[in-house]
Every structure is written in C-alpha cells, then in structure tokens.
C-alpha cells in the first residue's frame, strides 16, 4: 500500500508543468494551472508596469495581460511627463479591455484636453469600475473642465474620485450610478443642483467625501446606505462655498468627519443619524454643530441637551480647555476614544483642581484611549493630562504626540513624574510619548475616511 501511495504521488508530480511555466529549479508552477479568468483578476490587481511584465513569464502568460481587466495608473508608467503620455496611449490602443481601474492624477493639462478625452473614450476602459481623475493643483479663477467622457462609465463605476476640475453640470441629471459605493470630490467646481442630482442617482453609496469644493452652499444628505461622510468648505472667499450641512435622514451613517474648515461659518445639523459612532474633528471654526437637542456653538454647549450614547469615537481640534472637553464627555457618556489636536499657538486653560469633574460616567465605565496631539511641556498641559490620569478608571492607553527633538529618554522620564503617571486611576493603562505629529491642524486623510474596514479613521 505504501509503495502504491508513493507511486501515485510521483505520477501526479510528473503531470504538473515545470520550468518554462514560471517555476524555478523544477518546482511545479501551480499558479499557471489556474483558469485564465483567475489569472486575469490577479494581473489586474498588480501595478500597471508589473501587470504588463507578466507577458514575459512564458508563452502561457503572453496573451493574458491584454485580455485581463485593465488597471492603468498613468503616474506609474514613468517619472517623465511625455513618456507617460506615450506609454498610456500605447497601452490603451493595444489592450482589448475591459477596464478595471484608471488613475490619472495631478495631470498638467496644457493643450492635452483632446488627448485625455481620447483616452477616456478608449474601448480598453469599457466597463470601468474605478476612476481617479485630477488635474495638477493650481490656484486659478477658471476651473479646468473635466471631459464629459469621464462620466460614460456611470453604469459600471464602483469607486470614483475627481479633483481639481470643473464638473460637467449639463449632463449629470441624465446619469445614474447604480453600483457606486465610494465617491470623492476634492477641490471641484460643481453646482448645488448637480451634487444633489449625483447623490440621488447613487442608490448604494456607502462613503462620500466632499472636500474643499466650490459652487454650492448647502449640502443635504438623505441616504439609506451611506455609512461614512467627510465634508469641508473651501479657501476661496470669492466663490460660492459650503456653509451648511444638513443630514436629514441617514439611518446607516456611522462616521461624520468634518475636515478642518477653512472659514468660520460652517454649520452642521444632524436631524436623523441613529447609528452615528464616530465624530470629528470638531473645532471653533464650525459655528454651529447640532445633534437633536444638543447644540454646540463654536465648541460651547448651549442649553441642557439629552446625552447621545451612540458616539464612541470623538476628535476635537482645539486648545482643549478642560471645561469644554468635560461638557463633550457629558454629552457623549459612552465615549471610548478621545482625540485632541491642540493648536500650537496659545495655551490650555490651567485647571488647578483636576478632581472637580471626577463623577463622570464616561470616565468611570467607558473611556479607554486618549490621544493628545501637539502636547507641550508646561503647567497648563500637565494639569489637563492629570485630569485623565487620575480619574479615567478604565483607561488602557494614552498617547502623547510631541514635536521632534523633545522626545528623548530624559524628557520622557521627567514627564512620567510631572504627570503623576504612577498614581493613575487605571493600573493597566499604558503611556506612550512619540515624536510623530504632522504640522497640520487636525487633518485626517481622505483615504482613512473612505476606509470602511475600520471604524476609527483617526488612528491611521
């Protein structure tokens, strides 16, 4: 019986292709045995240049790249602008399609509008599922037009990102995006009617980021599927820009991320979002933030609201005056993670009695993590931190992001004594000091807002 088993195993090994099929040293090439459809999907997930190089593996692989769903990242083709144009044109003329992903970012328009339009009309991109399109960023009073051909993929798109361009308003009312789950518009000129027409044509949209756009003052959200929303106004005071966000009905919304406003008059009103779990960054530049009976005006609580228990993650972009922060803890008593991005200029309010707020349900039962960004070594900061150290009974982790050059072993040892970390209310709490913050005011990247695999976009 043992001899027969060995013989059968040896027979099977001899039947497998070796050598020229991609294996080395006689090792069987099992990948090449996969069906063409599977290999095509693998190739389409590779960077553009790597996908094209699979043609050199063997005769078996040679026709696969041209038939696989095309993943074309123009920026990946070369470091030189004119070579990227040559290579992209060649690929689109030779590939038979269909398209999976087309990425053209930071492109210098000059007199190449017809060239881009021709690319987008190529048969190789038919059935495109993902598009990333933007011109080179520049301050210009006349937004550069996005080719209407970029919207011919509306019936098949699942992910779309447009930036630094002017949206073709005249044809959008005729379009539907039945498969679109993720939409990002960044520094785009688009009318209020157009943006709402797009949203009404996205029946399964899950993630939406509208960042720094012009052309509309009010954004109204009514979506049965939306789970993540990122919004921000624009720098340009001369143009029509976002001033009001009204979430009328969003039963699945879990995440609302107002990226740092550029102006001081943004209003946010949440009428119905019963599953909201992640909120921030909130700042004084948001003139009004209203959630049911809860109203904050420039971070100051107005009235006596009912607490909201769904919010677990909160990010504040402010010099964290303890009086203000504690009011947020009372409004969100089930909060588990707190991020505070402190402005470099200015100081925290010095709170001498750090125990006068000790009777907070959030501190006793729920708050597990505090991340303080731009921590500075002074009495006011230390007083603020000691409030959490001495009162957060279930705290597991507290992180301090400090300026580079300050975070050496001697400085950290001094902070441990100054902040009374040995007297912590939660004995299992860990404290980390890291020199890792970026010099920006509480920004969270667009990719993190769109990443629905995690509920915490601020932890990236």
UniProtKB/TrEMBL annotation:
The record's annotation in InterPro entries points to: F-box-like_dom_sf (IPR036047), F-box_AtFBL13-like (IPR053781), F-box_dom (IPR001810), F-box_dom-containing (IPR055302), FBD (IPR006566), LRR_dom_sf (IPR032675), LRR_FXL15/At3g58940/PEG3-like (IPR055411)
Which residue range or ranges hold the F-box domain?
28-64
* Gene3D superfamilies in UniProt: 1.20.1280.50, Ribonuclease Inhibitor
Q: Where is the composition biased (Basic and acidic residues)?
A: 1-15
Q: Residue ranges of region Disordered?
A: 1-27
- A Pfam family the protein falls into: FBD
> The organism sits in which domain of life?
Eukaryota
Protein known as: F-box domain-containing protein
According to its UniProt entry, this protein's organism is Digitaria exilis
Q: What is the lineage of its organism?
A: Eukaryota, Viridiplantae, Streptophyta, Embryophyta, Tracheophyta
């Amino acid at each position: 019986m043992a001899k027969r088993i060995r013989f059968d195993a040896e027979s099977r090994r001899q039947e497998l292709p070796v050598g020229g099929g991609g294996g080395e040293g006689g090792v069987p090439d099992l990948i090449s045995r996969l069906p063409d459809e599977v290999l095509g999907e693998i190739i389409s997930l590779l960077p553009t240049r790597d996908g094209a190089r699979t043609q050199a593996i063997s005769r078996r692989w040679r026709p696969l790249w041209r038939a696989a769903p095309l993943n074309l990242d123009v920026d990946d083709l070369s470091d030189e602008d004119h070579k990227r144009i040559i290579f992209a044109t060649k690929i689109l003329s030779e590939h038979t399609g269909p398209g999976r992903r087309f990425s053209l970012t930071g492109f210098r328009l000059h007199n190449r509008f017809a060239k881009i339009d021709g690319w987008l009309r190529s048969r190789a991109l038919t059935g495109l599922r993902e598009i990333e399109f933007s011109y080179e960023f520049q301050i210009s009073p006349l937004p550069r037009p996005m080719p209407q051909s970029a919207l011919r993929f509306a019936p098949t798109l699942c992910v779309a990102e447009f930036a630094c361009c002017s949206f073709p308003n005249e044809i959008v009312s005729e379009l539907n995006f039945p498969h679109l789950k993720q939409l990002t518009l960044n520094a785009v000129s688009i009318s209020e009617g157009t943006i709402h027409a797009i949203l009404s044509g996205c029946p399964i949209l899950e993630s939406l980021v509208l960042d720094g756009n012009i052309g509309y003052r009010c954004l109204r959200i009514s979506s049965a599927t939306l789970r993540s929303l990122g919004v921000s106004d624009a720098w340009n005071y001369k143009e029509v820009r976002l001033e009001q966000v009204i979430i009328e009905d969003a039963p699945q919304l879990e995440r609302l991320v107002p990226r740092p406003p550029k102006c001081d008059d943004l209003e946010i009103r949440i009428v119905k979002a019963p599953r909201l779990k992640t909120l921030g960054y909130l700042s004084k530049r948001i003139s009004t933030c209203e959630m049911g009976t809860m109203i904050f005006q420039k971070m100051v609580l107005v009235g006596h609201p009912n607490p909201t228990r769904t919010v677990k993650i909160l990010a504040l972009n402010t010099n964290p005056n303890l009086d203000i922060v504690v009011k947020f803890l009372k409004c969100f008593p089930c909060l588990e993670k707190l991020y505070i991005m402190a402005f470099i200029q200015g100081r925290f309010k010095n709170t001498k009695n750090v125990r006068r707020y000790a009777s907070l349900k959030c501190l006793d039962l729920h708050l597990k993590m505090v991340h303080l960004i731009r921590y500075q070594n002074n009495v006011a900061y230390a007083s603020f931190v000691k409030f959490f150290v001495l009162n957060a009974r279930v705290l597991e982790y507290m992180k301090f992001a400090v300026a580079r050059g300050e975070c050496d072993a001697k400085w950290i040892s001094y902070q441990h004594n100054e902040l009374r970390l040995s007297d912590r209310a939660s004995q299992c709490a860990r404290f980390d000091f890291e020199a890792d913050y970026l010099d920006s005011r509480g920004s969270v990247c667009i990719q993190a807002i769109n990443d629905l695999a995690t509920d915490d976009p601020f932890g990236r």
